[in-house]
Amino acid sequence: MSSIRALSTLTTRRLVAAVVPAALLLATSLPAKAQQGDQPPPKVPVIQIEPSSASVYKEYTGQTEANRFVDVRAQVNGILESRDYVEGARVEAGDALFQIDDRPFRAAVNEAEADLSSARATLAAAQRDWRRISSLFDRGVASEKQRDDARSALETAQSAVQVAEAQLESAQIDLDYTSVSAPIPGITSRRAVDPGNLISVGDRLVSIEEIDPIQVTLSYPVDDPFADTTALNPSPERTTPAEIAGITGPEGETISGNLDYRSASIERGTNSIELRGVFDNPGDVLRPNRYVRVRLKVDEVEDAVIIPETAIGTGAEPNSTVVYVIDDENKAAQRRVELGPMSDQGRIILSGLEPGDRLVIDGLLKVRPGAPVDPQDPSESKDD
Description:
single chain, alpha+beta, 4 helices, 19 strands, elongated
């Protein structure tokens, strides 16, 4: 019985070995179309080219800097008594920063006040003498010399009062300088000197940077295609609106400003022209010496051919760009185009497309030159 079973198993294996190659041979002999089935044309979004007007925007690299930068320095000699601000904090104009020992200066003010009082008393006596001598001279009792002496004394006393008033004013100014306050609003730096030190006139105490608003300097090459436009030639009377690209305020707001300065000369090393703008800086999101991209409108075009960036592909030739257009039989054809500047609606095409052309705007990987496609309305098309 076991021998019969072994023979049956051997026979079955031989039959399978014979059938499998025959099946593989039959499958390879079938046409590829029969194996895979008919593939429908790929669905692609298509638009018809229609000229339209658009605004042309460009971005230039800029660098931020403080709108105003002030080194606060001592204006009198003395002992620094206190620091009245927090390093790195925002201060407003007039806020107290430092206090210098004011006792010597108060004494100088008191002395100047006393000198002024004495000068005024002397002036009052000279005025009385002048009135008396003048009256006697008119009656012929006093001599001409007595009258002249009285007049000279009066004028000297008047001058002495003016000198005393000036000295008092100078002493008061020095006293005021002992209280060091912020000249501008801004962010304070680390202190340059500690309380207890003897400071001299001219010593730096702290720096303040005003960063709201903040300045941005940028430059463009002299051969920029828009170098002669009004946008790249701003002035204080004719500013150019601009915004910082890619950076927003704390609540998502656009950081905008105006370019108001253009250098009169060309920078020799870079062959470029410098511009400067002042921008709002909500939340101090921008700090000095940061590189940013400044976006501004440089031109306004009419009847332009504008397509989305997703419609542009790379051609076979080096540095070439192509698009796909659809003919009346819904077959795709590759067409080389010349790119223009970017606009607020898309890329401007300088040559290669004409009004009325049907353009594939997405899904270029599914399109082959000469192959049919299934055009779809962009608002309704979906990826397969």
